[in-house]
Amino acid sequence: QPVPQNDYYARYDIDKHPENGGISPRFTRKFTPNPASPSGDNTERQFLRVLQKVYQTIEKNEMRLEDQDRKDAIRNEWQQLALVIDRLLLFLFIVFTTGITLALILPGYYAHMREIA
Protein backbone atom coordinates (compact mmCIF):
# COMPACT_ATOMS: atom_id res chain seq x y z
CA GLN A 1 0.00 0.00 0.00
CA PRO A 2 1.57 3.31 -1.02
CA VAL A 3 2.39 5.82 1.68
CA PRO A 4 0.72 9.24 1.30
CA GLN A 5 3.12 12.09 0.49
CA ASN A 6 2.03 14.12 3.48
CA ASP A 7 3.01 11.29 5.82
CA TYR A 8 5.73 12.20 8.33
CA TYR A 9 7.96 9.26 7.43
CA ALA A 10 7.67 9.79 3.68
CA ARG A 11 9.45 13.14 3.99
CA TYR A 12 12.52 11.48 5.50
CA ASP A 13 12.54 8.42 3.28
CA ILE A 14 15.35 9.99 1.26
CA ASP A 15 17.56 9.74 4.36
CA LYS A 16 17.94 6.01 3.78
CA HIS A 17 20.32 6.53 0.85
CA PRO A 18 21.88 9.98 1.03
CA GLU A 19 23.60 10.99 -2.16
CA ASN A 20 26.11 13.40 -0.66
CA GLY A 21 28.50 10.86 0.83
CA GLY A 22 26.56 9.81 3.90
CA ILE A 23 25.49 13.18 5.29
CA SER A 24 21.82 13.24 6.13
CA PRO A 25 19.76 15.60 3.92
CA ARG A 26 18.04 16.83 7.06
CA PHE A 27 21.38 18.21 8.16
CA THR A 28 22.48 19.64 4.83
CA ARG A 29 19.18 21.43 4.22
CA LYS A 30 20.14 23.82 6.98
CA PHE A 31 23.25 24.92 5.08
CA THR A 32 22.12 26.33 1.77
CA PRO A 33 24.58 28.50 -0.15
CA ASN A 34 23.98 32.21 -0.42
CA PRO A 35 23.03 33.03 -4.05
CA ALA A 36 24.78 36.40 -3.77
CA SER A 37 28.04 34.71 -2.89
CA PRO A 38 29.74 32.84 -5.77
CA SER A 39 31.95 30.87 -3.37
CA GLY A 40 28.98 29.73 -1.26
CA ASP A 41 28.65 26.42 -3.15
CA ASN A 42 32.37 25.73 -2.88
CA THR A 43 32.36 26.60 0.83
CA GLU A 44 29.44 24.26 1.43
CA ARG A 45 31.21 21.45 -0.41
CA GLN A 46 34.35 21.97 1.63
CA PHE A 47 32.34 22.07 4.82
CA LEU A 48 30.49 18.88 3.90
CA ARG A 49 33.77 17.19 2.96
CA VAL A 50 35.26 18.12 6.34
CA LEU A 51 32.06 17.03 8.05
CA GLN A 52 32.20 13.68 6.26
CA LYS A 53 35.82 13.16 7.35
CA VAL A 54 34.87 13.98 10.94
CA TYR A 55 32.00 11.49 10.72
CA GLN A 56 34.33 8.79 9.35
CA THR A 57 36.85 9.48 12.10
CA ILE A 58 34.16 9.18 14.75
CA GLU A 59 32.94 5.90 13.22
CA LYS A 60 36.49 4.50 13.17
CA ASN A 61 37.01 5.58 16.77
CA GLU A 62 33.75 3.93 17.85
CA MET A 63 34.76 0.71 16.10
CA ARG A 64 38.18 0.83 17.74
CA LEU A 65 36.62 1.40 21.17
CA GLU A 66 34.17 -1.48 20.67
CA ASP A 67 37.05 -3.73 19.66
CA GLN A 68 39.09 -2.59 22.66
CA ASP A 69 36.13 -3.22 25.00
CA ARG A 70 35.73 -6.72 23.57
CA LYS A 71 39.45 -7.42 24.04
CA ASP A 72 39.34 -6.06 27.59
CA ALA A 73 36.38 -8.31 28.44
CA ILE A 74 38.22 -11.37 27.10
CA ARG A 75 41.37 -10.38 29.00
CA ASN A 76 39.40 -9.99 32.24
CA GLU A 77 37.83 -13.44 31.80
CA TRP A 78 41.26 -15.00 31.32
CA GLN A 79 42.63 -13.15 34.35
CA GLN A 80 39.78 -14.44 36.50
CA LEU A 81 40.39 -17.98 35.25
CA ALA A 82 44.12 -17.61 35.95
CA LEU A 83 43.37 -16.40 39.48
CA VAL A 84 41.16 -19.43 40.18
CA ILE A 85 43.76 -21.84 38.77
CA ASP A 86 46.50 -20.10 40.74
CA ARG A 87 44.58 -20.51 44.03
CA LEU A 88 43.81 -24.15 43.22
CA LEU A 89 47.46 -24.92 42.50
CA LEU A 90 48.53 -23.13 45.70
CA PHE A 91 46.09 -25.24 47.71
CA LEU A 92 47.37 -28.47 46.05
CA PHE A 93 50.98 -27.43 46.69
CA ILE A 94 50.30 -26.85 50.39
CA VAL A 95 48.42 -30.14 50.76
CA PHE A 96 51.09 -32.21 48.99
CA THR A 97 53.97 -30.46 50.75
CA THR A 98 52.35 -31.02 54.14
CA GLY A 99 51.52 -34.65 53.30
CA ILE A 100 55.02 -35.48 52.07
CA THR A 101 56.61 -33.73 55.05
CA LEU A 102 54.47 -35.71 57.48
CA ALA A 103 55.17 -38.93 55.57
CA LEU A 104 58.90 -38.36 55.96
CA ILE A 105 58.90 -37.21 59.57
CA LEU A 106 56.30 -39.48 61.24
CA PRO A 107 57.97 -42.89 60.59
CA GLY A 108 61.19 -41.64 62.21
CA TYR A 109 59.27 -40.15 65.11
CA TYR A 110 57.35 -43.40 65.75
CA ALA A 111 60.58 -45.44 65.51
CA HIS A 112 62.23 -43.13 68.02
CA MET A 113 59.22 -43.40 70.38
CA ARG A 114 59.40 -47.23 70.24
CA GLU A 115 63.06 -47.20 71.18
CA ILE A 116 62.35 -45.03 74.18
CA ALA A 117 59.41 -47.14 75.36
UniProtKB/TrEMBL annotation:
InterPro entries: Neuro-gated_channel_TM_sf (IPR036719), Neuro_actylchol_rec (IPR038050). SUPFAM superfamilies: Neurotransmitter-gated ion-channel transmembrane pore. This is Neurotransmitter-gated ion-channel transmembrane domain-containing protein. Keywords: Membrane, Transmembrane, Transmembrane helix. Gene3D superfamilies: Neurotransmitter-gated ion-channel transmembrane domain. GO terms for cellular component: membrane. Residues 13-43 are annotated as: Disordered. GO terms for biological process: monoatomic ion transport. The keyword Membrane applies. The lineage of its organism: Eukaryota, Metazoa, Spiralia, Lophotrochozoa, Mollusca. The chain crosses the membrane at residues 88-110. The keyword Membrane applies.
